[in-house]
Every structure is written in structure tokens, then in C-alpha cells.
Predict the structure.
Amino acid sequence: MQMSETKLHDTEISPEAPIARGTVTRRGFLKASGLLMGVLGTSSAFLSLAPSRAWALELAVLSDSQGKALMAFSQTLYPHATLDDAAYALVVKALDNSAADKATLKMLDEGVRTLDLLTGGSFLGANAQTRLAAARAMEGTPFFGACRGTTVNNLYNNPIAFAHFGYQGSAWEHGGYKHRGFDDLIWLPNPPESASPAKD
């Protein structure tokens, strides 16, 4: 299987080596409301495509604590133990963009505060089971719906997730899937010979 040539700048996460490189500038760092930072795991499928293991993502509206809580919430909704935090950070960036609307910002802020209340004071500090119980208690609320929809639309539609799950991305601009592993089923065992049609 040939992995598509995906570069880190195709996402909104910039390398943090140094932090002023990429989209995170010193001026932007000072102007940003919040900042999410992390390091790609040594086993990350995306590591070979990234210029640095460290990453940083500016938040224009949300605070650090809100961003971290929303990232933890998206991880609770759609957990993948080996998927890098950088993929979930892109969900937070999408929520941050929507938070430019004051009503949405108020909804997200109240949602995070409610999560903290449901987990005894700190959603971030709670264990996985407590977080899951809090998430279930929020089902049906506008906050839950917004976070769930944003997670679905952003978590699985970025180069980090593509590299992690082995998806090659769009193929039409590369001539289609015929020569790009259309029959690669690396997530399934090979079928027995008897499953194939008899040869004439």
C-alpha cells in the first residue's frame, strides 16, 4: 500500500520546533486565547510525514482549559487508544472556529462547566469511567450534539487519521484506486483459496 504524500502543513497543526515555525508565530502565540501542544507518539503512522514530533495549535477564542476539556470530551466520545492527540486537537480547532459566534461560545463554555460539575470539579482530572458517565448525562443537549457532530466531521477527515487507519485519501487526482491498492484489505485476514471463483 502506498501512503499518499501528506504533509503536516495540510492540517492546521504546526510543528513546534521552534514554536515560531509554521503557523504559530510569537505574535500569534501572544494574541491567541489558548494553545494546545503535544508530541507525536514514537509509533505514530504520521511521524514519518511530520517535520517534527512536537506540535502546537492556536486557539483564537477558547482558553487552554476549555480546549483541553473539549479534546478530552471528543476522546471520550470516540476513543482510539493509539490515535495521536494531534488528531483530536483538530476537532478542538473546529470548535474554536465555531466559537467565534457568541452563542456557540456560551454553549461550549456552559457545557465544559457542566462536565466539571458532573465529574466532581474537573472533567480533565476524572478517570475514564467518570468521564463516560458525564458524557452520557449530556446526551441530548446542544453541547453534546455540537461536539459529537464536530468530532465525526473532523476527527476522521484529516491526514493524521488517514495515516493512522491506513486510508490513502482521495485517489481521483492520482488516477484512481486501480494502481493505489484498491484491493488492499490489511485490516482483514486473507480469504481462503476456496473463496475465489474456480479457474477455467
